[in-house]
Amino acid sequence: MNHDRYDDDYIRTILKSVKTIAMVGASANDARPSYFVFKYLLGRDYRMIAINPGLAGKELLGAPCYASLKDVSEPIDMVDIFRNSAQAGAAVDEALLLDPLPKVIWMQLSVRDDAAAERAEAKGVKVVMNRCPKIEYGRLSGEIGWTGVNSRILSSKKPALARGFQKFTIDRR
């Protein structure tokens, strides 16, 4: 797969199909990007699991925290990697040892490891690199337009509201 550009349908399908996301590198520091991405996805009804040795045994925003992926006893649909590119390969390899395998491995903005992506795809796992699920969800739902950012999506369709107040969903077709 070409990881330089992703089709909107590819991203939308991933975001609609996953329910449980394990974030490797989640932080309890509310000034860190991993914290507000974690909080945002939690608010979009994803089941979030924090992976951070320093938080193991605690909770982050009511979600469980574990030292490593192998410590999680439930199936994980998506592993969101909030580590640098040099550490991404090890996180991917740990994810590929899970049983069952995750459906998706997602590497955050500026994180890319083509060799690790090849290993995951060889096992049938979808891969996204150098993207943020929070940004992609906001872009595809229309929420990102609230901040004056051009989402590159023009539509005369009224955005579908999710459960709650001022929260759009990615079901926009």
Question: Can you describe this structure in just a few lines?
Answer:
The protein has 173 residues and is an alpha/beta fold. 29% of the residues lie in helices and 16% in strands. The chain has a 7-stranded mixed sheet, sandwiched between helices.
Overview of this structure, please?
The radius of gyration is 16 Å and the shape is globular. The mean pLDDT is 90. The chain has helices at 8-17, 33-43, 85-95, 114-122, 133-141; strands at 20-24, 47-51, 59-60, 63-66, 78-81, 104-107, 126-128. A seven-stranded mixed sheet has the order 3-4-2-1-5-6-7, with helices on both faces. It has 173 residues and is an alpha/beta fold. The longest helix has 11 residues, at 33-43. α1 packs across α5. Helices cover 29% and strands 16% of the residues.
Based on DSSP secondary structure assignment, what is the total number of beta strands? Answer: 7
Main β-sheet description: 7 strands, mixed
Rounded to an integer in angstroms, the radius of gyration calculated over CA atoms is 16 Å
Shape: globular
Structural class: alpha/beta
Give the uncertain stretches in residue-range form. none
Query: Ends: how far apart?
Result: 24 Å
Can you list the strand order of the major beta sheet?
3-4-2-1-5-6-7
Query: Percentage of helical residues?
Result: 25-40%
Task: Note the run of SSEs as H and E.
Answer: HEHEEEEHEHEH
How much of the residues is beta strand, in percent?
Answer: 15-25%
Task: Provide a count of the helices.
Answer: 5
Mean pLDDT score = 90
